[in-house]
Specification:
Number of strands: 0
Structural class: mainly alpha
Helix content: over 70%
CATH class of the largest domain: Mainly Alpha
CATH superfamily of the largest domain: Cation efflux protein transmembrane domain
Number of domains: 2
Shape: elongated
Strand content: under 5%
Distance between the termini: 39 Å
Number of helices: 7
Order of helices and strands: HHHHHHH
Radius of gyration: 22 Å
């Protein structure tokens, strides 16, 4: 091989390494803004749910806190997945990312169970809800979730969608739906005074989230089965 060719390959390799470093750095930074926004507004909604008495807002706050865990774990998974000698599943997914996805699905199931139990209780013991306060806080939450969902979708388009990123996006999508339900509940309560709409919409959004979570669990199962099939073949 000529020296010129060798230098060209080295230059290309250095550029590739530099590009990979930038790519990894982008991955790290991309989770910073969504994580910060969700964390801050989760606290706002938790306080707001206590102030307004809304279960829909409380469920949305619960989903946001699960998002904080999902995004934080996703951030950690990106960092650990780029380290050398990281063990990977036969499908190519790192075990760290696989574990994060399982934890995300499990925490979502816990949040859904809590909201359903609380909603059923409110049918027999209705709570007074402040419609205007609920509408304002939920609308702000909707804007935050739209920003975060767009950022995660943008990352998937430019850097490829991973199981880990899909799990985080699932949480944010659930939040987005929760915010829409909370806004609707606030508007209906403000104009009609019908308090039961709060637990009704909370149940509705929980069932939608359950379907989405089952889809994620099915993806995880397929990944695990891929490993089992390969072992059986060999």
């Amino acid at each position: 091989m000529s020296r010129t060719h060798s230098n060209t390959l080295n230059t290309h390799h250095n550029k590739h390494d530099h590009h990979e470093d930038d790519h990894h750095e982008d991955d790290h930074n991309h989770y910073l803004v969504p994580f910060s926004l969700i964390f801050i507004f989760a606290i706002v909604e938790a306080v707001g749910s206590w102030y307004t008495g809304s279960l829909a807002l409380l469920s949305d706050a619960g989903h946001m806190f699960s998002d904080v865990a999902a995004l934080g774990l996703a951030w950690m998974a990106v960092v650990m997945a780029k380290k050398p000698n990281v063990k990977r599943h036969a499908s190519g997914v790192s075990y760290v990312e696989l574990a994060v996805s399982i934890i995300n699905a499990a925490t979502m199931l816990l949040v859904i169970a809590f909201v359903i139990i609380e909603a059923l209780d409110r049918f027999t013991h209705p709570h007074h809800v402040q419609g205007l306060g609920l509408t304002i806080i939920a609308t702000l939450g909707l804007i935050v979730n739209l920003i975060v969902a767009w950022q995660l979708h943008h990352q998937a388009e430019h850097h490829g969608e991973s199981l880990n990123n899909r799990a985080a996006f699932l949480h944010v999508l659930g939040d987005l739906l929760g915010s829409v339900a909370a806004v609707a509940a606030g508007v209906i309560i403000y104009f009609t005074g019908w308090m039961l709409i709060d637990p009704i919409l909370s149940l509705f959004i929980s069932l939608l989230l359950l379907i989405l979570t089952f889809n994620l669990m099915r993806e995880i199962w397929r990944t695990l089965r891929h490993q089992a099939v390969l072992k059986h073949v060999h």
